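ingest -> validate -> predict -> emit
validate: passed (alphabet ok, no gaps, 554 aa)
predict: started
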Amino acid sequence: MATLDGRWTIVFNGEIYNYLELRRELEGAGVKFRTQSDTEVILQLHARVGEAAAARLNGIFAYALWDASERRLLLARDRAGVKPLYYTATDRGVAFGSEIKVLFASGLLEARMDPAQVAEYLVYRHVAGRNSLFQGVRSVPPGHIVRVADGQASEPQVFWKAEVLPHPFSGSFREAVDALDSTLNAAIERQMIADVPLGTFCSGGIDSSLVTAIAARKAPRPINTYSVGFEDASYDESGFARRASSACGTVHHELRVSEAEFVANLPRLVWHHDLPLNFANSVHIHAVSELARRDVTVVLTGEGADELFGGYPRYYIPRLLAPLAVLAPGARVALGRLLGRLPDHRLRKLGAFARRAPSEWLLFNNATSDPSSVATLLGSRVVPPFTFRSDCLESALARTPDSVTALAMLDFETYLVSILDRQDKMSMATSIESRVPFLDNEVIDLARSLPLEYRQTFRHRKRVLKEVALRYLPPEIVHRRKSGFGVPLPAWFAGTGPASTLLDEAASSQRLAETLDGAVLRRLVREHRGGAVDHSDLLWSAVNLHVWQQVFEV
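emit:
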């Protein structure tokens, strides 16, 4: 879309939820509109206030804005990074897009793996910040803009950053519950505005169930909800989803994905994702998106609540281990080994961290694989420093009074971005748009203003959010133990089915052996199948790397 005078032209992916308020403001200043769209509001706002427009937008967005007068391009991405935005800058020009594949299609860049990023991918399953597993592919960081002039791209400039906390909330806990209830209701109402059918992804967890409950109350007729289950009963949570649907009065739809379907779909979904699938349940999100697309084109989801309200059990790790910081390293290692023999996976994880230096308890809090194991798999003694993550953590610690808030800030700029990337690409591959009410600007600002004891204590996670949820949902849904959206990879890799066959292919791949130590990878496979150690997380990363190399021929 372009302005009438031809100066400003925009290409835009996303939705602006406060565009009506911005439109009224602009009309009050004399601006004339030709359409009813949010796209034109972005155009006119930029024409009026320039680059400051990006910070005024409440929504999910990635856009490129061309200023014909100044001959300058502006790339902008929403504050949480819900919508992806990639670019490459070469001596022949700059290309950009919502998918990495478009950069290769431009002819400015060839698909090549960046070996320097492999260690971070294996440890975290995601390369944070501007870089990616592809050489020369850059990502506009969430809450940033990139200027392009004379064929040159600037360093990303921030317009919003998670480390800059809003003014502290000064009310009581009960007042915080009321404020969150009101703010979340307003956010969901804004995001339900659509000229197409709308539903929710409802897993039966507290976050998606609360979004569903509020949306169901606001809809003029029963809404559609969607969930996906597993044939393995120990991983199947579809019963909780049905319970939430019944409590909310929705029309519920569910499906199951078999191991064979999972493996068969991997190459296609890696292609849609552009990068290795950081989460195994990406396959299931794509499947449930295909199911939803039969009825709706917009869904509301529950992403973002754990980072904003202290929902992850791993946030307890630094506080639980703090008394051990005074112990000698040898004593911590011995205690860690003892914990590692216990049957509870949470205690085993605590034991793994106890064996590490206190300085690493925060940096590796959201890691999926042990850095020392990754170093061995790469044929090295140590992994390289993860500079972007370290810088984010250092900045967060300097601005916050506690480790939980610092970890939440680190997750907001790293782990959450990978979650949102998964959700957007898997749903958009089926032409479904996922909206995230918990990442509405006003919800983000309120959550980050709350004191830690309103968000998380040793007895309660997501304390204030659960109090809101009890106003809408049965207690058994609100207080159920957090389980995540797991996939039975340990059993699949140890078995004889399609996933195990794919793992063997990866372990014998000559191309993968140029990056990973094949002998070490095969040893990990033997140990996993022998029941000695559960290596499924690292093996999943290796399998994904193998599939990605095949799909993109890197």
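The first helix runs from residue 19 to 28.
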